Amino acid sequence: MVSYVIFTLTLCGIYALLALSLNLIWGGVGLVNLGLAGFFAVGAYASALATGAGAPVLIGWTAALAVGAVVGLVVTFATLRLRDDYLAIVTLGFAEVIRLVALNERWLTKGSDGISGIKAPLKAELGLMGFNLFYLGLVTLIVAGIWLLLRRLDGSPYGRAMKAIREDQQLAAFAGKTVLRFKLQAFALSAAIAALAGALYAHFQSYVSPDHFQPLITIYIFLAVTAGGVGRPSGAVVGAYLVVIFLEATRFATEWVPGLQPVQVAALREILVGLALILVLHLRPQGLLPECIPRAPKPVPSKA
Amino acid sequence: MTDFMTNRRTLLTGAAALAGIGALPKLALAQGAPIRIGTLTPLTGSGGPYGPVMVKAVKAVIDEVNAAGGVLGRKVELISEDDQTSPEAGVRAARKLIDVDKVSAILGTWASSVTTAVAPLCWESKTFLATVSGADSITQLPHQGYLIRTQPTTTLQGRKFGEFVIAEKAKRVFFLSPQTPFAKSQFDNITEAVKKGGGETASQIYDDKKPAYRTEIDEVLRFKPDAVVFGGYTPDTAVMLKDLFRAGFGGLKVAFGYSVNQKLVDSVPADVVDKTYTISPSSAEGSKAYERLVKLIGVPSPDPYTTQIYDQINLVLMAIALAGDASGTAIKDSIRKASQAPGGAKIDNAIDGLKAIAAKQPVDYDGASGPCDFTETGDISDSKFRYEQVQGGKIVLVKIA
Predict the structure, then answer these.
(1) Residues A231, A29: Cα–Cα separation, whole Å
(2) pLDDT-derived band at B29, boundaries 50, 70, 90
């Protein structure tokens, strides 16, 4: 049981990183990124390939960050003129492109067999249980670090400018903010965080394949950010933990329903997930921890 | 006199103690915790059509065994989880089965990616894993014996396709397939078999979601093939067959049994699919185990995965009885004694098997999916294939070999 809890909490942390990434770009600049699973995949593959070629794990993670940021920039440049629904569709397409490349470029990614035996850092030294604890600590620490940074960013003038762009791009430009630069930077940073989550996942599971990166993950993360509260890093983190715990809890809850076949239990779990999303949107559309919008400072009375 | 009394009393106590010792293990076993077996089949997602029946077969066997007194005097308990046909969800479910339910064995992982993702958890936690996935790479994992599969490898399937077209006197063979886990290995092994017969091959990987395949067909015809082998699934193979017919191709057509099935035959004009051959790993149709399974679950012709998982649960329960221990390691060490003990009595179900084991007889299980003998690496060593042909809108059995 203990190792199951440790595993679930580690997964919570990885989902929380994805949620933070989405919150930065969606809650921050207002760009809907349905390609989250794609960036997740890019990071996972980048690190798996780098460490597979002999690089130490830390280099692999750095590579994931860098590749993620670069791919983020490319996607932003490709979608400069798109906003809202149009952007969402293109990013969704981007994630599929990544998955198809991973599926078909066998020389690089071993196709649908996937890459197995990815280095798990310090696993030999720490033993199975030790490694699981160490990894839980590491992931939690990284989540805490990035959460602090993003919170700080939100409160800074940079964060305020970002949110001004989210509310009204033209007005922000009129106020002298370089909209394009903000978008590029935010998208690159967000993509890098998602890629880091992918790299952490790859080294935790020791196996990645194109099947890992189906759009369902993106949907879970959207659910997490919506439930937690769009536009607030704490909300994203809380939402991610809740979603994973909820997904796992439905396993045990459905065991109490008598007289169901296993296939009906499986369907019931999916129904519960859908129901939860509807309830959250209906009862608390702003999320559990809604964005705090600081009050505008009172104008200082000018000296007569 | 007192001496004698003491002696007699001592003797009595001793005898009682001896009897007690003899009774103890039995008592402890009867009260022992249930043996837990997990299934991890796809109940939702693209494998959704297969998983539910698979679980049903396992449940039926376990109910039967429990009614006959269980294994080692312990009840067997089934815990079913859904892998959602996704390695990410599959790993979460496997974690729960291993860490919370503490199952001895996990049966029935279906998609190759799910099996590859779940396998390390199993061998690290010394849980036994039996799978129906076909990708060659699975048994090459460092699984230390904790994994067996009942599905023939793609290598074997590819070779059978190649040998068949050569036997049908085709020399130029074209392989058409969408990107699947087995497409490459399938083609390589067809090529090997065809080259051995003095022929030549070419292949094309297509996108399985297109409504028409004119350009792909042009490419095929440019090769001037005598035979075309289809590696796809039902929907795309139906489109491919239509376009190939329209282009006037009159050569040999060979496909997997699961793609050119009765549903496909009914959905296209008879001429389009006529004379197409299908090859599939044969369930041991007509065998005692197969008929028993049909009766047990009330499904007239169970798919190959169901026959395989039926054999897996029978084998695992017998292995536990043979080892006298329900741990994953015990199953790993004795599974081959249940499946292929030399000179063993031919057994086709767990109930008879458990009786034979209790009578200290060696057993050799022959199941609903085939003889179920395993190599060192966990692959089945022999499998029969079923060759059929579409004739006038009906699928007709040609041979089983």
Answers:
(1) 9
(2) very low
Closest CA in chain B for residue A112: B181
List, for residues A35-58, the tens digit of each pLDDT value. 999 999 999 999 999 999 999 999
Residue pair A211/A118 in contact by the 8 Å Cβ criterion: no
pLDDT in tens, B223-252: 999 999 998 888 889 899 999 999 989 899
Give all strands (DSSP E) within B112-247, no chain letters.
128-131, 147-149, 172-178, 200-206, 227-230
- Of the ranges A9-13, B45-49, B153-157, which is most confident? A9-13
For residue A246, give the H/E element and its range.
Answer: helix A233-253
For residue A304, name the pLDDT band (cuts at 50, 70, 90). Answer: low
Closest CA to B377 of B73, B143, B180, B201: B143
A284: CB partners within 8 A, 6+ apart: none
- Residues in B whose CB is inside 8 Å of some CB of A read 39, 43-44, 51-52, 55-56, 80-82, 84-88, 91-93, 95-96, 98-100, 111-114, 116-117, 120, 124-125, 135, 137, 141-142, 179-181, 184, 205
- Residue B196: inside a domain: yes
Strand segments, DSSP code E, in B83-190 are 105-109, 128-131, 147-149, 172-178
Judge whether B281 and B134 are in contact, CB under 8 Å: no
Enter the pTM of the model.
0.83
Angle between helices A123-155 and A233-253 (to 10 degrees): 130
B96 and B223 part of one domain: no
3-state DSSP assignment of residue B158:
helix
Burial class (CB in 10 A: 0-12, 13-18, 19+), B47: buried
Is B14 a domain residue? no
Decide if B13 is inside a domain.
no
Interface predicted TM-score (ipTM): 0.87
By the CB < 8 Å criterion, does A253 face chain B? no
Q: Which residues of B touch A211 (CB under 8 A)?
A: 85-87, 111, 113-114
- Asked if residue B37 lies in contact with residue B78, where contact means CB atoms within 8 angstroms, the answer is yes
Question: What's the rounded Cα separation, in Å, for the pair B80 and B82?
Answer: 7
**Two structure tokens written together for B173:** 């063979």
Specify if B132 maps to a domain: yes
Does residue A82 lie within any of the structural domains? Answer: yes
SS3 A254: helix
Q: State the pLDDT confidence band at B20, using cuts at 50, 70 and 90.
A: very low
Q: In whole angstroms, give the CA distance from residue B241 to residue B255.
A: 10
Residues B48 and B195 in one domain: no
User: Cα-flanking dihedrals φ and ψ of residue B12, to 5°?
Assistant: -60, -45
